[in-house]
Design a protein that fits this description.
This protein has helices at residues 13-24, 85-99; strands at residues 31-33, 48-52, 57-61. The chain is an alpha+beta fold. The mean pLDDT is 88.
Length: 100
């Protein structure tokens, strides 16, 4: 369910402070954040973030297309390793049977 319009987007206060501090700094370095639930605001465009996915920090530079989305959408927490070898073997046998 979406957040009500009158409340506005949720952004961690500490994150807003870090962004304001970084905007004035000519030598920018990425901002580390653990707040995956925070919404990306237009003020964040062009700033680099390191978003924690539970294991490591994923580097992301914010573009205009990302505004309105959550930070967590750009740092996946799960990694797909493919299907099991048994499934691949079963697929090969059905394909070879279909060719005959």
């Amino acid at each position: 369910m979406a957040r009500s319009v009158w409340k506005g987007p949720f952004v961690e206060e500490s994150l807003i402070k870090k962004v304001e501090k970084e905007k004035n700094n000519p030598k920018r370095k990425p901002i580390k954040t653990w707040s995956r639930k925070s919404t990306i605001l237009p003020d964040f465009v062009g700033i680099s973030f390191l978003i924690y996915n539970g294991k490591k920090f994923i580097p992301i530079t914010i573009s205009e297309d990302m505004v309105g989305h959550k930070f967590g959408e750009f740092a996946p927490t799960r990694q797909f390793f493919g299907h099991t070898p048994a499934d691949k073997k079963a697929k090969e046998t059905t394909e070879s049977a279909a060719k005959k």
